[in-house]
């Protein structure tokens, strides 16, 4: 601790440490590791971890698959340009999935309160599940919302549910937080998420959280339930894993 630190009121010092971390996170070059924060702030590793855990719990940072940290859109980080680039790279592969299954395929992400669609490709069929790019979606009743929520801390999930609510859209919608957390445990065990008419009657959706991107993303396929029997889901999930591998090989991370 420096002399100036000793003279600084604790509350102000804590704010300064938080701002140091946020400034480090705002550098666009790469995700930030716990070691980076320790080096930047001089904090002990346990203290730095507590700061990061608090920021993650409050929705200002998100943890990557490698354990590093990125700022979320709620912090005002220019994710939009990164997401636009990821959507551009993913577009041909999303179209390939659409053509393979002749159904609506989308790429989604998660911000402070809700999931949102980054890119959507639709089949030419007149009867289809219609989704718009940029549209918001609640995490409790969408497959890709579940897939992404399964990757964040339980406390953060509860905070999102408190903020967005858990309105009932169909008789299948999960409206109890504890039951939803049980659903996320099933998602983690299975490795993918399913929305079985929970957001729209007669629709079914399957989603997989990607491992090939630094920014947390999920790919999903939506269809009328009569065209997406439960036994077909494994075929879709296998295709999603191929998509994830191919996306990573093509430089999925901006």
From TrEMBL:
Residues 71-253 form the IclR-ED domain. The keyword Flavoprotein does not apply. SMART domains: HTH_ICLR. Transmembrane segments: none annotated. Keywords: DNA-binding, Transcription, Transcription regulation. One of its GO terms (biological process) is negative regulation of DNA-templated transcription. Signal peptide: none annotated. GO terms for molecular function: DNA binding; DNA-binding transcription factor activity. It comes from the Bacteria. Residues 12-73 form the HTH iclR-type domain. This is IclR family transcriptional regulator. It comes from Phytoactinopolyspora halotolerans.
């Amino acid at each position: 601790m420096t002399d100036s630190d000793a003279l600084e009121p604790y509350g102000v010092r804590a704010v300064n440490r938080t701002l140091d971390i946020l400034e480090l996170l705002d550098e666009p070059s790469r995700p930030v590791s716990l070691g980076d924060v320790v080096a930047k702030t001089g904090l002990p590793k346990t203290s730095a971890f507590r700061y990061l855990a608090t920021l993650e719990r409050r929705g200002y940072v998100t943890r990557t698959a490698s354990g590093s940290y990125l700022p979320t859109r709620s912090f005002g980080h220019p994710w939009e340009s990164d997401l636009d680039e990821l959507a551009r790279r993913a577009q041909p592969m999303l179209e390939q999935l659409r053509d393979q299954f002749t159904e609506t395929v989308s790429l989604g992400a998660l911000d402070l309160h809700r999931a949102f669609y980054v890119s959507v490709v639709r089949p030419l069929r007149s009867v289809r599940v219609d989704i718009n790019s940029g549209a918001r979606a609640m995490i409790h009743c969408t497959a890709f919302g579940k897939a992404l929520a399964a990757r964040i801390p339980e406390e953060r999930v509860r905070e999102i549910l408190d903020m967005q609510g858990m309105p009932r859209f169909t008789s299948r919608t999960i409206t109890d937080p504890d039951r939803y957390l049980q659903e996320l445990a099933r998602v983690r065990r299975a490795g993918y998420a399913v929305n079985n008419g929970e957001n729209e009657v007669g629709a079914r959706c399957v989603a997989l959280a990607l491992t090939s991107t630094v920014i947390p993303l999920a790919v999903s396929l939506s269809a009328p339930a009569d065209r997406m029997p439960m036994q077909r889901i494994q075929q879709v999930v296998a295709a999603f894993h191929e998509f994830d591998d191919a996306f990573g090989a093509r430089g999925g991370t901006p």
